[in-house]
């Protein structure tokens, strides 16, 4: 599903080139649950952003379902991202002025899904995650765990083939974190491909494989 060939990411100044990622070779099969670990500054989030098409590599090749992402124009990359990838962020990234319902609806509007179909999809997800009673609340009226759950539902609403999670439990206490990880585990068991970045060794163990980064390189 995902193939990175000698992918690097760097920033250039007048006198030097500073690498954030260096020579990354990585393959992820459909249906895998991969945990990316490493110290702060090792390039974990940058790698996830490249896989999620929020950023482009400076060098190297990226194939997503056999499509050469590194050769595609922005419109095509944006379309693949919208149609196939869901993203969960540590900081939730909910829109404060929108209700739970409206936050979940936003990616469906971007994809041009008609109102009646949107309503049906949202109703199904609110029921599945026992959130019907909270649909008219605003993010500030929710606990951290509830906000992250809205973030999870928003990422899943479009039925992505690939779910990316950047420190999804980073702002949660352990009980809330385990709830989120149990949801990811269930999604994986149902066949979803998941890549998460985490500092938590216990939560990394939910994955079927751990990739360790250090100084922008895969060390094991």
Q: What assembly state would you assign to the polypeptide chains in this entry?
A: single chain
Low-confidence stretches: none
CATH first level: Alpha Beta
The number of distinct structural domains comes to: 1
Biggest β-sheet strands, sense, barrel? 6 strands, mixed
- Overall strand count: 10
Q: Distance between the terminal alpha carbons, to the nearest Å?
A: 20 Å
- Give the overall shape, derived from the CA principal axes: globular
Describe this structure in words.
- The chain is α/β, with parallel strands linked by helices.
- It has a single domain (2-218), classed as Rossmann fold (3-Layer(aba) Sandwich).
- It is 35% helix and 27% strand.
- It contains seven helices and ten strands.
- The chain has helices spanning 44-51, 74-84, 100-110, 115-128, 144-156, 174-189, 201-204; strands at 2-12, 17-28, 33-37, 59-64, 67-68, 85-89, 162-166, 193-197, 209-214, 217-218.
- The chain has a six-stranded mixed β-sheet, sandwiched between helices. The chain has a four-stranded antiparallel β-sheet with strand order 2-1-4-5, covered by helices on one side.
- α3 (100-110) runs parallel beside α5.
- The chain starts with a strand and ends with a strand.
- The model has no long low-confidence stretch (mean pLDDT 93).
């Amino acid at each position: 599903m995902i193939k990175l060939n000698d992918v690097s990411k760097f920033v250039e100044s007048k006198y030097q080139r500073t690498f954030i990622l260096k020579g990354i070779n990585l393959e992820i099969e459909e249906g895998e649950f991969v945990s990316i670990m490493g110290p702060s500054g090792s390039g974990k989030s940058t790698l996830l952003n490249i896989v999620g098409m929020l950023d482009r590599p400076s060098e190297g090749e990226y194939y997503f379902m056999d499509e050469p992402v590194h050769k595609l124009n922005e419109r095509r990359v944006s379309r693949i991202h919208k149609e196939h990838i869901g993203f969960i962020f540590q900081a939730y990234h909910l829109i404060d002025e929108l209700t739970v319902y409206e936050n979940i609806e936003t990616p469906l509007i971007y994809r041009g899904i008609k109102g009646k179909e949107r309503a049906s999809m949202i109703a199904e997800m609110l029921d599945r995650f026992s959130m019907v009673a909270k649909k008219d609340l605003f993010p500030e009226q929710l606990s951290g765990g509830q906000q992250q759950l809205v973030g999870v539902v928003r990422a899943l609403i479009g039925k992505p083939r690939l779910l990316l999670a950047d420190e999804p439990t980073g702002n949660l206490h352990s009980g809330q974190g385990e709830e989120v990880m149990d949801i990811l585990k269930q999604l994986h068991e149902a066949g979803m491909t998941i890549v998460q970045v985490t500092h938590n060794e216990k939560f990394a163990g939910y994955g079927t494989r751990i990739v360790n980064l250090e100084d922008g390189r895969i060390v094991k």
